[in-house]
Design a protein that fits this description.
Layout: E1 6-12, E2 25-30, H1 36-44, E3 62-67, E4 71-75, H2 86-102, E5 106-114, H3 121-130, E6 137-142, H4 149-166, E7 171-174, H5 183-198
Parallel strand pairs: 2-4, 2-5, 5-6, 6-7
Antiparallel strand pairs: 1-3, 3-4
Length: 206
């Protein structure tokens, strides 16, 4: 599995039009401006695989990127965006909720948080919302290059300790798209999820 081979396939606005499952999927989600699109681009070795916007709430679609025939990376709309109409937020609940809670092909969820401001109330609400799904969760503490080495390690320890309460079983790491910090660890997590999912019964069409 070579994540750098990821290529855009399609975007979905209506949960009823999600594509037929054909390979394990790893979803990426994060608070607006947390660095989700940059993380996806860094992992894929592309500058614009996922669109990077300075406007919070810009991505309102579920975007699928195929990694050869092995897996899909799935870019979910950002949450916690301000200044967005209520109906757009309601659509997020339906679109993302239907995907996360019912998608048989979903192998795990990568949650991207700004390492300078991790586990905000919005982040904790997301994890609380995710918890009943039983999904495997791995947190990328993005923009780690903005922290000193000591501050980064302290933040990582605090987040890992908090996760034992907020989302038992979730894992976390430091990550920097700019400095490519934590790339190997993130890739290893994704590959492990995909391999584990493939060992299960083949996913059925949704």
């Amino acid at each position: 599995m070579r994540i750098e081979n990821a290529r855009y396939v399609l975007s979905v606005h209506d949960p009823r039009k999600l594509p037929r499952a054909s390979a394990p999927e790893v979803a990426f989600i994060g608070r607006s401006n947390a660095g989700k699109s940059s993380a996806l681009n860094a992992l894929a070795g592309r500058r614009r695989l996922a669109f990077v916007s300075k406007t919070p709430g810009r991505t309102q679609l579920i975007n699928f990127f195929a990694v050869d025939d092995d897996a899909f990376l799935v870019d979910l709309p950002g949450y916690g965006f301000a200044g967005v109409p209520r109906e757009v937020r309601a659509h997020w609940d339906v679109l993302v909720g239907e995907y996360v809670f019912h998608r048989e092909a979903l192998a795990g969820v990568v949650v991207v948080m700004d390492s300078r401001h991790p586990l905000t109330p919005q982040d904790e609400r997301l994890l609380d919302w995710l918890l009943p799904s039983g999904r495997s969760v791995h947190i990328l503490l993005s923009k780690a290059d903005k922290l000193s080495a000591q501050a980064g390690l302290r933040t990582l320890a605090q987040v890992r300790a908090a996760l034992s309460r907020v989302y038992p079983g979730a894992t976390a790491q430091l990550f920097s798209s700019l400095k490519r910090t934590g790339m190997a660890e993130a890739q290893a997590c994704i590959e492990a999820w995909v391999a584990a999912h493939k060992q299960k019964a083949p996913a059925k069409g949704e």
